[in-house]
Design goal:
236 residues, mainly alpha, 2 domains, two-stranded antiparallel ribbon, elongated
Length: 236
């Protein structure tokens, strides 16, 4: 999370994610940015040919992405000189990686990180520092009051399903089994990890499910997440 606060800017896309749950979350956006930035940094600062041979080519092969295995297999674009073959090959692999693999890898990383509510809390506290500094006069379509986004009034079914399966049908604070509530079609209590009053947003990474008792007793103070983790064999 080092320097993550400098990544988020109050763009139109930021406002859309903050107001209404999107399947492509703030976390997706951040992971994609980190993947692209890391590759660009190595290509600019390190040995791009060595990096392409050791990393890019092997990753593309692992994902069954068709690519020239080595500079010798690379067909030079018209007008390019053979002495530039190795560097042109590395740039070509870089473009394939960005075009075809950043999104799939970001989805895989997101799936792992989405299960870690403590990491999500820290991420959303950083995002909240941006929101808390905003004035409603400047962002009337985003903010219900200074530093406070509009609360989402409707949670889509895909979001409820995602939160339920992430938390294995248990309350995120007390771990009470909510599977009976879900199967009965009752509305789950969806809670903001970082409260709206503290700069929280309606992004899926800032949401968790609670039982009725935890939801009614939870304070409107700083964010709360359970310190307990579901052990994978609990499901069997």
């Amino acid at each position: 999370m080092v320097d993550v606060e400098y990544f988020f800017e109050i763009t139109t896309d930021f406002q859309s994610k903050a107001l209404k749950p999107q399947k492509e979350t703030f976390l997706h956006e951040l992971i994609q940015h980190c993947l692209e930035a890391d590759v660009e940094w190595v290509m600019d600062k390190g040995d791009p040919v060595e990096f392409a041979m050791d990393e890019l080519a092997s990753v593309l092969s692992a994902y069954n992405i068709d690519h020239p295995i080595s500079p010798d297999d690379f067909v030079l674009p018209k007008g390019e000189y053979p002495e530039d073959r190795s560097l042109l090959w590395t740039r070509y692999l870089e473009e394939i990686f960005k075009d075809e693999l950043i999104t799939p890898i970001a989805n895989e990383v997101f799936t792992l990180m989405f299960a870690d509510r403590e990491a999500l809390r820290k991420l959303n506290e950083i995002i909240a520092t941006k929101v808390k500094g905003l004035m409603r006069d400047e962002y009337p379509s985003l903010l219900a009051a200074d530093g406070k986004v509009y609360r989402c009034k409707y949670w889509p079914k895909w979001l409820k399903n995602a939160l339920f399966y992430r938390d294995r049908g248990h309350c995120s604070l007390c771990l009470k089994d909510l599977s009976g509530v879900f199967s009965a079609g009752a509305d789950l209590a969806i809670d903001h990890i970082v409260p709206i009053n503290f700069g929280g947003t309606n992004d899926p990474t800032n949401l968790q499910i609670l039982c009725k008792d935890c939801n009614s007793s939870k304070s409107s103070g700083p964010s709360q997440v359970s310190k307990f983790q579901h052990i994978y064999w609990d499901s069997f």
